[in-house]
Design a protein that fits this description.
The protein is mainly α and 276 residues long. It contains nine helices and no strands.
Length: 276
């Protein structure tokens, strides 16, 4: 307890800036990413202010209800990410695991919505990457953001698995880590299939019974996978993961919050402005 009381999660006296090197590096990376996304968003807006002849009527392509739902999901994931950081700063590893699981789950839902949206735009609305300037800038911008979310989800998964590393160095945890990763991979694929099926059922106004019948395997696999991951998270074995690792989770949280903030800007500039 005396060692834990000396940990300062916001300052590091061993650095000349007083800021932990990991956090300083993350801020520098996010600053460069701001300029990158700023260029993509500006390019999209410039072309929207001066659309060439034959540009599609965007308000007839977008589904603002679906995008609003995925935006809400991504914002809620930021809340869980903040709770995960706060839990580990207090030394509550189990609570950190559960909040990381929730963040991963919400991130996958967002990606599922984006995959469905892209598929719907291409096959139902005829909007592709090469048939209009709007399609080029839209898919480049939102697709780049989706890649950032996918990278963040993978990072979260690896951090979650890292939280199970035993405190006893003589114990091997590679087999356990492999099992965790396999369960995550199967659950993620099944969860994406479930999310896509559910969104399709909503769009087609299908009853819940028909959705459950057509997606029984995906739904069942998702439920079992989430139950297993939650059960793994209740492990009480001593681990080499605790309050001292809070800076790692905080750096990951900075990245995740940045991705969410960028999406708010994209949602406003790309989607909402089309209805004004």
């Amino acid at each position: 307890m005396s060692h834990a009381a000396t940990i300062d999660h916001h300052h590091d006296i061993t650095t000349s800036t007083g800021i932990p090197n990991k956090k300083l590096f993350m801020w520098a990376f996010l600053a460069s990413d701001c300029m990158f996304f700023g260029a993509l968003i500006s390019t999209h807006l410039i072309y929207r202010l001066h659309p060439p002849p034959g540009s599609p009527v965007v308000s007839k392509i977008f589904s603002i209800e679906l995008t609003s739902f995925s935006t809400f999901i991504l914002l809620m994931s930021s809340l869980l990410m903040a709770l995960a950081v706060n839990s580990l700063q207090k030394g509550h590893v189990r609570s950190t695991r559960h909040n990381l699981l929730g963040t991963i789950f919400f991130g996958l839902i967002f990606l599922g919505c984006q995959v469905y949206e892209f598929n719907h735009f291409v096959h139902e609305k005829g909007l592709t990457l090469s048939n209009s300037i709007f399609g080029s800038t839209f898919y480049t911008l939102t697709g780049t953001h989706g890649c950032h979310v996918a990278i963040g989800v993978l990072w979260l998964v690896l951090m979650y698995i890292r939280s199970f590393k035993p405190a006893d160095p003589s114990r091997s945890w590679l087999a356990l880590a492999f099992v965790h990763f396999v369960v995550f991979a199967i659950t993620a694929v099944a969860g994406m299939a479930t999310a896509l099926g559910f969104i399709h059922a909503l769009q087609a106004h299908e009853p819940i019974a028909i959705f459950a019948e057509h997606n029984l395997l995906a739904v069942g696999t998702t439920v079992v996978g989430l139950a297993l991951l939650t059960w793994f998270g209740f492990s009480r074995k001593p681990v080499e993961f605790g309050e001292a690792n809070a800076i790692d989770v905080e750096s990951m949280g900075l990245y995740w919050h940045f991705v969410d903030i960028v999406w708010i800007v994209i949602f406003t500039a790309v989607y909402l402005l089309e209805y004004l």
